[in-house]
Write a structure and sequence with these properties.
This protein is of the alpha/beta class. The protein folds into 2 domains: 154 residues, 3 Solenoid (Pectate Lyase C-like); 142 residues, Single-stranded right-handed beta-helix, Pectin lyase-like (Pectate Lyase C-like, 3 Solenoid). The chain is 13% helix and 32% strand. It is built from 6 helices and 26 strands. The strands form 3 sheets. It has a 12-stranded parallel β-sheet with strand order 2-1-3-6-9-12-15-18-21-24-25-26. The chain is globular. Keywords: Aspartyl esterase, Hydrolase, Signal.
């Protein structure tokens, strides 16, 4: 019997180690030790490893962190927590653009390649301005959550590239194609702000069987001074692009057509899935929408709620997981 008790104790101890969370603190004036670091990247590089079920929490003090950050695949279950009163108090900032870095996908201020990543109360910023492609963040991660965050840039601000992603109570700003890629992503209760005449989204689904696409729901689209010109909700970066905008406030400066073709896919617009449901505001009227877009029925719209659209085979409930963040 004794060996059974010893075996049970060892198993419990092993489970505790595997499930152990690690908490570290980032502040620009921090003196480096095992749990305190002056930069975010240093914390990611040198914090203790967590077990298969544990999480790494980075508690980030207010400040502008002028660095480029990579969350590697080995840092799964990393959580960035901004400790300011609002997302504007903790800013990760860089200013690379495609012309000077060697291409679009070398410009991101933050790159996330780790599954089960989360960020709360943080700003991700690319300060390059209207100088071409310049990413604030690139996210290639499954079950990623961004809560109360800000994403600031101009062209290609947010590369929602791969995996299931949930953006809630956040602010996203840009000028051209500033939410783009082929993730399965929901933007819930967000403000999406367009700075100049352009396109909110450039989704890139490549075949009809892919479960990918973007859903903008219960949100608000706002526009800067477009000098009398119009903007579009999106254009298809790839032939089977899918974007749904539902129960969202749309401004008067939205082009009545709503959506634009992309020259390279202009002959394949029947494959595109651009749709709307119960939007509101002065730009919500659908009578003048592009003929190759459509309105959803209530039954169809129900399939784009985050609990359904993001569920996957593991039945991930993104809103429930987001509610667990501080």
């Amino acid at each position: 019997m004794l060996w059974r008790h010893m075996f049970s104790a060892l198993c419990l101890a092993s489970t505790a180690v595997f499930a152990q969370d690690v908490h570290v603190h980032v502040a620009q004036n921090a003196k480096v030790d095992a749990t305190h670091f002056p930069t975010i990247q240093m914390a990611l590089d040198h914090a203790a490893d967590v077990g298969p079920q544990g999480k790494l929490f980075l508690h980030i003090a207010p400040g502008v962190y002028k660095e480029r950050v990579w969350v590697s695949p080995r840092r799964a279950r990393t959580v960035l927590l901004g400790e300011g009163k609002s997302a504007s108090d903790v800013v990760i900032s860089a200013g690379m653009n495609a012309a000077h870095s060697g291409g679009t996908f070398f410009t991101e201020t933050v790159e996330v390649n780790a599954d089960d990543f989360a960020a709360d109360n943080i700003t991700f910023e690319n300060t390059a301005g209207p100088t071409g492609q310049a990413l604030a963040i690139a996210v290639s991660a499954d079950r990623a959550i961004f809560k109360r965050c800000r994403f600031l840039g101009d062209q290609d601000t947010l590369f929602a590239d791969y995996g299931r992603q949930y953006y809630v109570d956040s602010y996203i700003e840009g000028g051209v194609d500033f939410i783009f890629g082929n993730a399965t992503a929901v933007f819930d209760r967000d403000e999406i702000h367009i700075l100049r005449p352009g396109y909110l989204t450039a989704q890139s689904r490549t075949n009809a069987e892919q479960p990918t696409g973007y859903v903008i729901k219960d949100s608000r689209v706002t526009a800067g001074d477009l000098q009398g010109k119009r903007f579009f909700l999106g254009r298809p970066w790839r032939a089977y692009a899918r974007v749904v905008v539902m129960r969202t406030e749309l401004p008067v400066s939205l082009d009545p057509r709503g959506w634009s073709e992309w020259k390279q896919n202009a002959a394949e617009l029947a494959k595109v899935s651009f749709a709307e449901f119960e939007n509101k505001g002065p730009g919500a009227a659908t009578q003048g929408r592009a003929s190759w877009t459509r309105s959803l029925s209530p039954k169809e719209a129900a399939g784009y709620e985050p609990k359904v659209f993001l569920a996957g085979a593991d039945h991930w409930d993104a809103p429930v997981e987001a509610a667990k963040l501080p």
